[in-house]
Design a protein that fits this description.
Largest sheet: 2 strands, antiparallel
Radius of gyration: 20 Å
Shape: globular
Strand order of the largest sheet: 1-2
Number of strands: 2
Structural class: mainly alpha
Helix content: 40-55%
Number of helices: 9
Length: about 210
């Protein structure tokens, strides 16, 4: 049997030998990490400067009925609002905080990713191979950590600018937000989301409870 086929077979058998819970967590992490991946690509260069007319934007829906399950996700799914601020000011603030949050995202190197997988799932997962092991580990830990760091940085920046944070259901959040764990969204996708976030930030005062920073 050719060596490359033997190596592939060994890697597949090694993955299959992992505990069921570990394999399920890998699958869940991989699905979350690749959600919306078709919108991700290498940076396409600076976007064209255009005038934004907020009257041409459709206000996203933010009304929903809270449930314990939805409330448990408020650390991930939220939006910002500030009274007495213009769309242009909100858009500038959100752009600045997005740039800060994206630039400070945590990127683990391959060795730390493999070490993390080894600690969680045992020597087998860490020893599958450099490329396979680091990819799995990054899908489990690295991507999730980068998304979490971006959320924390964004909350800190917007809180410093005196915006208030409010919870949202996941489905409504996805309509005007994005996550970047394994790549950067296309600029057109990012711009549309940031514009809608600014529109919400200057919209009607939310009736739900403020979450704090």
């Amino acid at each position: 049997m050719p060596r490359y086929l033997a190596a592939a077979l060994a890697a597949a058998l090694a993955l299959n030998a992992l505990p069921v819970a570990a394999r399920e967590q890998m699958a869940d992490a991989g699905q979350e990490a690749t959600e919306g991946l078709d919108d991700e690509s290498e940076q396409e260069g600076p976007p064209a400067v255009i005038e934004i007319d907020p009257s041409m934007l459709a206000m996203p829906a933010i009304a929903f009925e809270p449930t314990p399950e939805i409330e448990a996700g408020y650390d991930k799914y939220f939006y910002f609002h500030r009274d007495g601020i213009s769309f242009e000011e909100a858009y500038a603030d959100i752009k600045e905080c997005d740039a800060l949050a994206s630039g400070m995202s945590y990127y683990a190197d391959a060795s730390s990713a493999i070490a993390s997988a080894t600690a969680q799932y045992g020597v087998l997962a860490g020893g599958i191979g450099g490329a396979i092991g680091s990819a799995i580990a990054d899908a489990i830990t690295g991507s999730a950590m980068r998304r979490e760091m971006r959320r924390i940085n964004l909350r800190n920046c917007m809180g410093f600018k005196e915006y208030k944070r409010y919870g949202l259901s996941r489905d409504l959040w996805k309509a005007f937000n994005f996550e970047e764990g394994m790549g950067r969204k296309r600029e057109a996708v990012r711009e549309r989301a940031l514009q809608l976030q600014a529109l919400v930030a200057t919209g009607p005062v939310p009736r739900t409870q403020e979450l704090g920073l």
